[in-house]
Every structure is written in structure tokens, then in C-alpha cells.
Specification:
Blueprint lengths: L15 H4 L2 H12 L20 H4 L1 E2 L9 E9 L7 H8 L3 H6 L15 E11 L4 E9 L7 H8 L6 H7 L13 E7 L5 H5 L4 E6 L6 H8 L3 H7 L13 E6 L14
Parallel strand pairs: 2-6
Antiparallel strand pairs: 1-4, 2-3, 3-4, 4-5, 6-7
Helix pairs in contact: 6-7, 9-10
Keywords: Signal
Protein name: LysM domain-containing GPI-anchored protein 2
Organism: Anthurium amnicola
């Protein structure tokens, strides 16, 4: 009838999204676009007695938003004296030694790998710890008196876990009185790509161990990706500092190629 009278047609009701102020819409878009990001540890992993933050306890399942509950992932480990073969590294990280050899580190699981070599370790990553954090579960039995959560996290596991995460997931053990033979649950840091990251072509997130002399452009170049992708995945800006004994998530569109390269020297 309005058209017959020459008037304008009635407007359709506005959706709740249309009624939002422009600022709110922008903030919502920022939240959606940043859903693929995980917070960087920012050297908090060294303060075992301090208040645990989500960044030290693990990569949050909720930060991935619509990411899958489980996925294939990769850990980086540097060969060291006690863990210098695919067999010993696989045992420490609860990974398949033969899968390590398939990445061309060596031909046999008992063959020694040159010390301080970057080793790619394929693992399954799952949303665990009561649905709070992504992790790959391993276990460790204390081999000698004097080992602490700090030394296990930063020396044995090189930063693939944290003392805060070890304490959080081993509540029945006194963190100040660990004894030889104690068996610990070890949550290793990993994450699954969100749908936003998958839409950008990323299929895997690799947990890279930062060491002295590392920077984001060099790490990105090592894996042939844009440094901005690494920065975004870890909620970092170009000028931010990264620290040894922390992990960076490296988004990958395909499985990485294993290269036997020595780490940077301190």
C-alpha cells in the first residue's frame, strides 16, 4: 500500500550486528582475526615461584577458537649428550623414533646425531589438561637427586615445557622435594591451527625452541615463511624481544624439510 501511495517502502528491521557502533564492530573484527594467535611467554617461564600465567602453562585451546581438538604437529629439539639418537630423543618426547629418521636426520634409530643439531620431531597435539591447553603428553622419571622442575623444563626439555606447567600437572608431588625415581607427567608445548590459519593455507604449527642469537626473521627464513606470519601466530610485534628457553609457534603450509644444521652458539 505504501508503494501505491507513492511513499517509500518500509525499511527492514536492522540486525543486532548493524545496530552496533562502528567502534564495537571494529573490536569484534579484531577479536575474530586475532583468534588464531597464542600469547608469547616473554621470559616468564624462568620464574617458577611466581604466579603462573596462561602463557607459561601452555597454548590455550580457547585462543585457537574454532581450531581442531587434535592435530599433527612438530617439535624442535636440539641433540645433546644424553639425547643424541632418534631412539633416546623419541623416548624423552614420547615420539616415534622411526618418524624422526624419516625426516632424514639419520638412517637408523640408534645412529648418533651431531651435537646441537636441530631435530624435527613429529607428534600428535591434543587439547588436554581438562580442555585448557594444547599439549603432547610425555613422562619423565628423575634420574638423580638434585633435579628440579626448573632443570627438567629448561635443561632436559630445553623449554618444550615449563616449570609452571610441570607443577600444575603434577600436584601430588612436592616441587621442593623431588626425589630420584619420581615419575612426572610432562606436558610438551604444541598447538593446532585455527580455521583462520587454515584458511590462510597453514596446516601445521611447529614449536620452535628459541636460543641465543635467534630472531624472528631468521627463524622464519629457516622454514621459508613470512616473518609476519610468525609474529601474528605468537601475538608479537616486530620490535619485541624473544628469549632462550621459550617456544615460538611457526605456522607451516606443508611438512618441514629436515636439515642437519647446528644451532647458533651462545
Amino acid at each position: 500500500r505504501e508503494r501505491e501511495r507513492g511513499g517509500n517502502p518500509p525499511m527492514s528491521p536492522m540486525s543486532p550486528f548493524q545496530k552496533l557502533p562502528i567502534t564495537c564492530v571494529f573490536l569484534l573484527l579484531v577479536v575474530v582475526l586475532s583468534g588464531a594467535q597464542q600469547p608469547y611467554q616473554n621470559n616468564k617461564q624462568l620464574d617458577c615461584s611466581g604466579t603462573s600465567s596462561s602463557s607459561t602453562l601452555g597454548y590455550s585451546c580457547s585462543h585457537a577458537g574454532d581450531g581442531p581438538p587434535t592435530c599433527p604437529s612438530f617439535l624442535v629439539f636440539r641433540s645433546q649428550t644424553d639425547y643424541q639418537t632418534p631412539d633416546t630423543i623419541g623416548h624423552l618426547l614420547n615420539a616415534d623414533p622411526h618418524a624422526i629418521t624419516r625426516f632424514k636426520a639419520v638412517t637408523d634409530v640408534v645412529d648418533p646425531i651431531p651435537l646441537d643439531t636441530l631435530v624435527l620431531v613429529p607428534v600428535d597435539c591434543s587439547c588436554s589438561a581438562g580442555g585448557r591447553y594444547y599439549q603432547h603428553d610425555a613422562s619423565y622419571t628423575l634420574e638423580r637427586t638434585g633435579e628440579t622442575y626448573f632443570s627438567i623444563a629448561n635443561d632436559t626439555y630445553q623449554g618444550l615445557t615449563t616449570c609452571q606447567a610441570l607443577m600444575d600437572q603434577n600436584p601430588s608431588h612436592d616441587s621442593r622435594d623431588l626425589s630420584e625415581g619420581t615419575r612426572l607427567s610432562v606436558p610438551l608445548r604444541c598447538a593446532c591451527p585455527s580455521k583462520t590459519q587454515q584458511a590462510a593455507g597453514f596446516r601445521y604449527l611447529l614449536s620452535y625452541l628459541v636460543t641465543w642469537g635467534d630472531d624472528v626473521p631468521a627463524i622464519a627464513a629457516r622454514f621459508g615463511i613470512d616473518p609476519q606470519a610468525v609474529l601474528r601466530a605468537n601475538t608479537l610485534s616486530a620490535g619485541d624481544t624473544i628469549y632462550p628457553f621459550t617456544t615460538l609457534l611457526v605456522p607451516l603450509s606443508a611438512q618441514p624439510h629436515q636439515r642437519l644444521r647446528r644451532s647458533f652458539s651462545p
